[in-house]
Amino acid sequence: MSTITIMPCLDMKEGRVVKGVHFVDIKDAGDPVQNAAFYEKEGADELAMLDIAATLENRKTRLEWVKNVSSVIKIPLTVGGGIATLEDIELVLKAGANKFSMNSAAVKNPELVRQASRRFGKEKVTVAIDARRNKTMPSGFELVVSGGTKPVGQDAVTWAKQCQELGAGVILPTSMDGDGTQAGYDLEFTKAISDAVDLPVVASGGAGKLEHFYEAVAQGGAQILLAASVFHYRLFSIKQVKEYLKQKGIQVNL
């Protein structure tokens, strides 16, 4: 089994870290630079920073935020939100990101995934896939874009397979049904994606207890464990999560 990595996520809005439930009811969760430095010190393996309003507000990722956060950490930083062109990707990487995440723009223009993979390297390309339950879809999960506001009428698992063929390096699925609830990752969705692709899959949306992290690996097949609320509100530390996983026989970097 490969080493499992822990990835706190900074959801960004108006220069602050925020956290919502089901992508709405947004609350302040602190300063991004302070949070980033704190998480690295705590033992985070990677960090994600998602500009959650960029696509909705029809603008690019705020590069200033990327520069500020990347300047205080050495761990890999994945940046997403409002990335719609190769130029956007170049600017985000120049600002200090190690990887980038695409969502709505990739759905709109799948060829962008292929072009980005060829130009910047597969290992830098994360495709974020937001979905909600819909029984009319073959997998039972429908793709949604624009911060969870627009259903696409496309099967989310089929799209994950397509992303792998296009050259994505990581798939980051988030179930809208579980986001911010702390009721546990949507294991059914995570597993559907991890069974469908041969890429690292990020478990995202809903972590609230230590066992949720274990379940994401053991039942969901995830290799990267992303969480926000539990870390922002200090319900437990990254060290606690790693020690718990190690006791359960999961390989982690302590």
How would you summarize what this structure contains?
The protein has 254 residues and is an alpha/beta fold. It is built from 10 helices and 12 strands. A hairpin with a 7-residue loop joins strand 7 and strand 8 (141-145).
Give structural notes.
This protein has 254 residues and is of the alpha/beta class. The protein is built from 10 helices and 12 strands. The mean pLDDT is 92. Helix 1 (32-42) packs parallel to helix 2, helix 6 runs parallel beside helix 7 and helix 8 (210-218) packs across helix 10 (238-247). The protein is globular. It starts with a strand and ends in a 7-residue tail after the last helix.
Supply database-style keywords.
254 residues, single chain, TIM Barrel, alpha/beta, twelve-stranded mixed β-sheet
Give the SSE layout.
Elements: E1 5-13, E2 16-21, E3 24-28, H1 32-42, E4 47-51, H2 63-70, E5 77-80, H3 86-94, E6 99-102, H4 104-108, H5 111-120, E7 125-133, E8 141-145, E9 150-155, H6 156-166, E10 170-175, H7 187-196, E11 202-203, H8 210-218, E12 224-227, H9 229-232, H10 238-247
Parallel strand pairs: 1-4, 1-12, 4-5, 5-6, 6-7, 7-10, 11-12
Antiparallel strand pairs: 1-2, 2-3, 7-8, 8-9
Average predicted confidence as pLDDT:
92
How many helices? The count is 10
As a whole number of angstroms, the C-alpha radius of gyration is: 16 Å
Q: DSSP strand (E) fraction?
A: 25-35%
| Coarse structural class | alpha/beta
User: Which stretches are low in confidence, meaning pLDDT under 50 for 5 or more residues running?
Assistant: none
Measure the end-to-end span: 16 Å
Order of helices and strands: EEEHEHEHEHHEEEHEHEHEHH
Instruction: Count structural domains.
Output: 1
The CATH class turns out to be Alpha Beta
CATH homologous superfamily grouping: Aldolase class I
Q: Which fold does the CATH topology refer to?
A: TIM Barrel
- Helix % is 25-40%
Coarse morphology: globular
